Amino acid sequence: MKAARQASDLWWKNAVIYCLDAETFLDSDGDGCGDFAGLTQRVDYLAGMGVTCIWLMPFFPSPDLDDGYDVTDFYGVDPRLGTLGDFVEFVRTARHRGIRVIADLVVNHTSDRHPWFQAARSDRDSPYRDYYVWRDTPPADGDEGVVFPDAEDSLWELDEQTGQYYLHRFYAHQPDLNVAHPAVRDEVAKIIGFWLELGLSGFRVDAVPFFLEIESEVGDVDLDPHDYLRDLRAFLSRRRGDAVLLGEVNLDPAEQRRFFGDEDGDELHMLFNFIGMQAMYLSLARADAGALEEALRALPPVPPDNQWASFVRNHDELTLDKLSDAERAEVFAAFGPDEDMQLFGRGLRRRLPPMLDGDQRRIRMVYSLMFSLPGTPVLFYGEEIGMGENLAVEGRLSVRTPMQWSDERNAGFSDGDASTLPIAVVEDATYGSSAVNVADQRRDPESLLNWMERLIRRRSECPEFGWGEWQLIATAEPALFAHRCDWEGSTVIAVHNLSSRACTTTLEISEPDDCEGLIDLLGDRDEVPLEAGGLQLDLDPYAYRWFRVRRRGQRLLP
Ligand code: GLC
């Protein structure tokens, strides 16, 4: 049974997830806006790269004041992107190419233009009033925990018409839904059920801790948020056994664990590894693996049927909020020294390649590292070709510029007028589409794109990383991050040199009795000897190496 489960039920344990926004991927009709018809044309591109799951950023009707994270209809498709019919054609095409689709589930809040909120604010007696959270006066701590401090100074906004304040964790135009209200919980289940029925394989759950927050007057409601999350997960699994919930839970490690659920892991299947990501940048800035090692050691143990999701970059500011002020200052100094590169005092609005001055060896080392960390790798569109950011674009949108397909007009994204694009393309000579685009990189065997495709293929062939138990391997070189993953009698070892110095090291790896040597999984050498004293390695600056212990009788791909 185990083999069957590994092959499909927990497909996300060894997936390669690719996040994109249909709005900025490909415009099929020249109106300037990307759409589902365009995205469908590019499914083969993603399949060719080895992507196994697409995560769609919000595509629902929206006034687009938070790039679609402000929804006015949870059961529809934004007409700019196409129709429900186009959506289903896309999901069907992806499935045909072996790619599953998940989507953002944004139910912490709605847009203030959502009919529920319009009704709720029209009258205190509206049946929708309790869909949201109201107070006569904002609580004393109402200005704490504001997520977007550039725009808001309180979590509570006065609704003039009805004279009460409503809760909004994010922008004031995003009133929080009240999960303490049974009708809201029913709606959330219905939304999940609806999209599963249309072919989704699960959801990236937006802002989970805020969504679960029960803002009730004392004694009001008897609802344990984790019981609720467990119920939601059970509902999802009843409707579709292999569906996944991938949660945005950027909390301290001790708090994160609860979101996986009890020993059986019966809440969120996967959590983004925000802690590991932040520590990775600190380690990169210091050229010292210590911070990353410490962060991984501090992670809570993951129940067997759960998983971390690893990433280098997501669609938001690259948050460094879990680092100390001094540590964050180090990362800022290394990778985003100008104020304009920083956001909210806690993050960076740059993509990786410009942060690393375009150093290809270092960029590849970082992706090799991310793909080998315990968990499932998640790419943000454009990372595979090394896209940069457009700092001229406001706030977090700097990294959400249109996909760069070619050096043609509008980066080959759209035939429309540049003024009609949702976000302006990157223009500069180093990262603009004349220098960085899919078409050129496809023709160049040494390009980042072709390298990424090989990396993805290798990663997919190494279930040990996704399924196995991981362990750090001590080295005498602070710049080296070395670890191993063991799974069902199979072992992979990865070594990354975070520094610009060449290093020589011996990794202490005891030679298993049935070991016939080490297979070099990324390099061009076939076999590396594993000697009694361990593994001797000469590592170039920013070297990345993956090995598999070749065991007698083992039939994994060499
Ligand atoms: C999440 C999303 C972010 C969005 C916010 C409000 O943090 O990642 O992009 O603005 O939720 O929905």
What does this structure look like?
By secondary structure, this protein is of the alpha/beta class. Among the domains are: 1-104 and 381-460, TIM Barrel, CATH 3.20.20.80; 115-167, Alpha-Beta Complex (Oligo-1,6-glucosidase, domain 2), CATH 3.90.400.10; 468-551, Golgi alpha-mannosidase II (Immunoglobulin-like, Sandwich). It has 17 helices and 22 strands. The chain has helices spanning 2-9, 36-41, 43-49, 84-96, 115-122, 182-197, 208-212, 225-239, 253-256, 274-286, 290-298, 325-335, 352-355, 360-372, 438-443, 448-460, 463-467, and strands spanning 17-20, 53-56, 100-105, 134-135, 156-159, 164-167, 202-205, 244-247, 270-272, 307-311, 318-319, 342-343, 347-348, 376-380, 469-472, 480-487, 490-497, 503-507, 515-520, 527-528, 535-539, 544-551. It has an 8-stranded parallel barrel, surrounded by 4 helices. The protein has a 6-stranded antiparallel sheet with strand order 15-16-17-22-19-20. A 3-stranded antiparallel sheet has the order 4-6-5, with no helix packed on it. Helix 10 (274-286) runs antiparallel to helix 11. The relative contact order is 0.10. The structure holds alpha-D-glucopyranose. Alpha-D-glucopyranose (GLC) binds next to loops.
